[in-house]
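Hey, quick one: can you model this chain's 3D structure?
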Amino acid sequence: MYAYAAHLYLYTYIYVYETICVFRSNSIMDGTFLLKTIAFSVFFVTTTGLSDDEIMQAACAAVVPSSGLTWISAVRKPCSNTEKTDTCDIICKNAVCSMRSIYGNQGSSGGTCVAAYHLYTKRNTLKDGENGKASIATLRYGVSGCRNPWCGPNFCCCKA
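Sure thing. Here's the predicted structure for all 160 residues.
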């Protein structure tokens, strides 16, 4: 997400710079138009693309077997290579109140980990029409990742 946003910021900067140069060369520099262009560019960059949380929410919802109503949330897990952190089992138990507040107090009162993932932050920015290349990568740990206290899974799929 961050690489994608940085890429868009660069293109936005270039676009705004070129727009200023064109207006200066034509001596019709309109501050209102320039302000609208900058506002649109910032709005475009900040609203384009999915966040890591949204990507993992979709992945978590997809891996849960459908057995009636199931309340699922992707919950961030801290990642440390030097010290143990809470497992996804513990994180899901602790996150159940915040999950239920989203769902209107529906679902179980006990949080359960159903899967764990590592979403890699490095992204490849693909050009329009560019096929056959990966842009985002994840590692699925499944249920066994729910008990991992180390850096590995950085998202827990929690069921309420």
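One thing worth noting: The chain has two domains: 2-47, 52-159.
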